[in-house]
Amino acid sequence: MGSPDPKPTPGPFRADQLQDGDRYELSNGHPIYCPPADPEDASRTLTGAAVIASDPEVAWAGIDAGFALTPRTLRAPDVAVAAPTDARGWREGAPSLAVEYAGVGRDEADLRVKIGELLAGGTSYAWVARLTGPRRVEVHRPGQPVQVYGSGDDLSTPGILRNPIPVDALFDRAAADRTVMRNLLQRAGYDGLDAVRAEGRSEARREGLRKGIAESILALLADRQLEVPAAARERIAACRDLAQLKTWLLAAARITDPARLFD
């Protein structure tokens, strides 16, 4: 989209004059009205934000967060990724990743200016997801030509997001859900759903072995006609330590007094 359109005369407003909830951005001191989003824009923004915020490398992401790029320029990308902060008010500087959804009625001239201001302010990647025409995302980087990715392609942001994001996940709820699940599993320490299933199978095998040993202890004592008190039965059944159960199994083959099982 190139550089911002020149504005030789700065506008009268500063970023610190805007309040939370004001429906304006600022470009070189000039107010830019931001109308409420239509249902499609709002839904797509929420979908994209969930996909991006769930990435394991993202510590902070926001929707419509205000970034004071200069004292007279305040921009609020639809979705943004930046370093976490406890500071209140507008964030100083630019997000590392900014995403804009462009639907019917979008002011294309201001969109060009906004992308240019974000890149000039320090944004590494600016994505424009087009809601009209073929499903596609325009990728803007400082000093680089615009690249366009379509359905079936992946979007990568080295150093910002760990995982590539399918273009479809920024538009389609089902594709977004799959991507969010992958990201959340990685946040929990799993490589993916297959790793969770494998752990479940392993845990099931361990539980089956544990129950088998516990039942073998009681069966062996019963076969030796040794009466086992109820409290001892409960202790054996509740034990989760396989090594301890194996020790008791060996003891059950030798003892003559059930009270000595736990010695």
TrEMBL record:
**What top-level branch of life does the organism fall under?**
Bacteria
Classification via Gene3D superfamilies: tt1808, chain A (3.90.1570.10)
Q: Where is the segment annotated Disordered?
A: 1-30
Stretches with biased composition (Pro residues): 1-11
Q: Which residues form the Putative restriction endonuclease domain?
A: 19-158
Designated name of the protein: Putative restriction endonuclease domain-containing protein
Record the organism. Answer: Candidatus Thiodictyon syntrophicum
